[in-house]
Amino acid sequence: MDTIWLTGPQWLAVLRIGLGLWWLESWRHKDRKAWFERGTGIAWAAGIAGKHRWSAVRSGFEAVVAPHPRVMAYVVVYAELALGLGLITGFLTPVALVGGLLLNTLYFTLMIHDVAEQGQNSMMALMSWVGLFGMSWQTWSLDSALGLF
C-alpha cells in the first residue's frame, strides 16, 4: 500500500516509534527517587485503589501490590522504560505491544474515574492494537533486521 509520502508499513513503523516515545516520556517524567525511596507512586495508587468503585480492584491491589510496594515501583517504572526502548528500536515488538496493552488496561482500570487518564490509556491501547495487527515490526526495526517474527 502506497501513500503520498511513506508506504503503509513505514507509517506503521512511525506509529510504533511514536508509541515508544510516549512510553519513554512516561518513564522519563517520573521522579524515580520518590518512587523507589519514598514509595510515592505506589502510595498514590493505593489511595486510588482503596476508594475504587470496584471491589475487585481494591482486593487485587491489596493482594498483589500492597505487600510488595518497592518491587512494584520498580516493575512499573522499568516496564515503561522497556516498552519505550523496545518499541522505538523495534526489538521484540509484539511482546512490547502486548505488554503495553496489559499495562494500559491496568492503568485504565485503576483510573476508571479519571477522564484524562482514560483518554491517554485508550489512545495508547488503540495504537498498540494497530501496531500489533498491522505487524509494525516489519519496517525500521531490529526484529526485521534480525529476522524475528
UniProtKB/TrEMBL annotation:
Q: Which UniProt keywords apply?
A: Membrane, Transmembrane, Transmembrane helix
Q: Where mainly located? A: membrane
Q: Which Pfam families does the record cross-reference, listed alphabetically?
A: DoxX
Q: How the protein sits in the membrane?
A: Multi-pass membrane protein
Sorted alphabetically, which InterPro entries does this protein's record hold?
A: DoxX (IPR032808)
Give the highest taxon in the source lineage: Bacteria
**Which compartment or compartments is the protein found in?**
Membrane
Q: Indicate what this protein is called per its UniProt record.
A: DoxX family protein
According to its UniProt entry, this protein's organism is Streptomyces viridochromogenes (strain DSM 40736 / JCM 4977 / BCRC 1201 / Tue 494)
